[in-house]
Recover the amino acids of this structure.
């Protein structure tokens, strides 16, 4: 298969769900207001790329590589990030909707999720050491057997974590958010 190498390119307003993005490696590229919904970007490489105002809902990410990539104001519903190539996997999310996505068993140390809606996201067995959930809605997000050491949940809300099923040494929580650590006990705090 002939892979192309594309660098320093801006792609704006393109619908890649009907006409697929050419297979290849993309470095330092900007995808602005592009649609990938239900498309296929499997076996591709994105290094230092920025996705702004894009729709990647239900996109196929089988063996896709993301290195130091950024998603801003993008819709990422139902994405199986756990299907990505996990070698040097690194990305950050700003003002994104990630509902129903899966990060199962990934190593996401130092990942930043800022002002993101993350309803019913699966973080089972994910390494989130020093991850930051800044002003994120984590309603019904699943955290089980996770490494949450030094993770920052101090401005996150609607989360429920079981301290007995996750490593949480030095994780940060607000006083109000700490109630999410007690939910499994079904106690009332007034």
């Amino acid at each position: 298969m002939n892979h192309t190498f594309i660098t320093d390119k801006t792609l704006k307003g393109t619908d890649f769900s009907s006409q697929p993005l050419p297979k290849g490696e993309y470095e330092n590229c900007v995808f602005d207001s592009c649609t990938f919904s239900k498309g296929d970007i499997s076996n591709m490489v994105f290094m230092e790329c920025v996705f702004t105002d894009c729709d990647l809902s239900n996109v196929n990410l089988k063996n896709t590589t993301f290195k130091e990539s950024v998603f801003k104001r993008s819709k990422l519903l139902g994405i199986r990030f756990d299907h990505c190539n996990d070698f040097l996997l690194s990305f950050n999310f700003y003002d994104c909707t990630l509902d129903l996505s899966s990060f199962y068993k990934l190593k996401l140390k130092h990942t930043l999720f800022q002002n993101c809606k993350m309803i019913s996201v699966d973080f089972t067995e994910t390494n989130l050491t020093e991850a930051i959930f800044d002003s994120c809605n984590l309603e019904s997000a699943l955290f089980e057997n996770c490494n949450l050491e030094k993770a920052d949940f101090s401005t996150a809300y609607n989360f429920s974590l079981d301290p007995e099923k996750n490593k949480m040494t030095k994780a940060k929580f607000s006083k109000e958010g700490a109630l999410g650590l007690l939910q499994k006990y079904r106690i009332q705090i007034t």
About this structure: The chain has a mean pLDDT of 93.
